[in-house]
Automatic annotation (TrEMBL):
Keywords: Hydrolase. GO terms for molecular function: hydrolase activity. The lineage of its organism: Bacteria, Bacillati, Actinomycetota, Actinomycetes, Pseudonocardiales. It comes from Pseudonocardia yuanmonensis. It holds the Pfam family Abhydrolase_1. SUPFAM superfamilies: alpha/beta-Hydrolases. It comes from the Bacteria. Transmembrane segments: none annotated. This is Alpha/beta hydrolase. Residues 21-243 form the AB hydrolase-1 domain.
Length: 277
């Protein structure tokens, strides 16, 4: 179903007078709630645009032949259209970073700047094995077990220990939420992650770009963030280190991630990029 016909669920929060809105593109299997640690802080000075991709959250029932990073990119563009935004500072995390990259490649005129958290440009055997394990879990294990295993993989030891039993309680609650994606939806998105390869196209990007990686990321090794930054002309790279420098950077290291986004965006504000409405 083309995004123009789909009822993608989206919202805007924050300062409607800000020169250039921020569009947040969520990670694999997650919706707009995943950005709460960022939006709660940044909405004070910026208009923030958030959405649930097809198959997830309030967009769970939007029809789609096959879910992918490409469909998330289409949803992101559709949300820009629907919210009346000409250009946005686009922030993507994990598979959302892949989708944000596709949006920038296909519609560069809509992207004032690009911030990519824990990205990859193409799969290597190490990452393929990780995504393959996640796919097997989604296919053969219960939704609860797959969710808990994913949290164990992306979170730090310190975060898991601090959460204790609450981590299991919240995982069980999440998988029973009506907006939690089906196993088929997650498999589609994982297949897209496995197939993603823009390594020979990134040189075409010309917008200001910030790449953020975590030195302790067990899922997408920080080498992928380094390769992404090296492939995009003029891109800035920031690698967080130490406790919490995991695949869940926007959660575990929210204060630093928020500061990096804010500094980067405000240094590249485009005075001519304003909402169309």
């Amino acid at each position: 179903m083309p995004p123009a016909e789909a009822e993608i669920s989206w919202e805007t929060r924050g300062d409607a007078t800000a020169a250039t809105p921020l569009l947040f593109v969520p990670p694999l299997g997650r919706g707009r709630r995943s950005w709460e640690p960022q939006v709660a802080v940044l909405e004070g000075a910026h208009r923030c645009v958030l959405f649930d991709p097809r198959g997830i959250g309030r967009s769970k029932d939007v029809a789609c032949d096959s879910y992918s990073a490409g469909t998330i990119a289409e949803d992101a563009r559709d949300v820009l259209d629907r919210s009346g935004v000409n250009r946005a500072h686009v922030v993507g995390w994990s598979l959302g970073a892949a989708a944000a990259t596709l949006l920038a490649l296909h519609h560069p005129e809509r992207v004032a700047s690009l911030t990519l958290l824990t990205p990859w440009t193409r799969i290597d055997p190490h990452l393929a094995l990780a995504f393959g394990i996640m796919r097997d879990l989604v296919t053969h294990a219960s939704a609860e077990s797959a969710e808990i295993a994913t949290l164990w993989l992306i979170l730090s030891r310190e975060a898991v220990n601090a959460a204790g039993e609450q981590l299991l309680i919240e995982a069980r609650s999440d998988v029973t939420n009506p907006g939690y994606p089906t196993s088929g939806t997650i498999r589609d998105y994982l297949d897209s992650a496995l197939a993603f390869d823009v390594s020979d196209r990134l040189r075409a990007l010309s917008m200001p770009t910030l790449v953020i990686g975590g030195a302790e990321d067990r899922l997408v090794d920080v080498a992928h963030a380094r390769a992404t930054a090296a492939a995009i002309p003029g891109a800035c790279l920031h690698v967080l280190e130490g406790t919490g420098a995991t695949h869940a950077l926007p959660v575990e290291r929210a204060d630093e991630v928020n500061a990096l986004i804010r500094t980067f965006v405000e240094s590249h504000e485009a005075s001519d990029a304003v909402p169309t409405t």
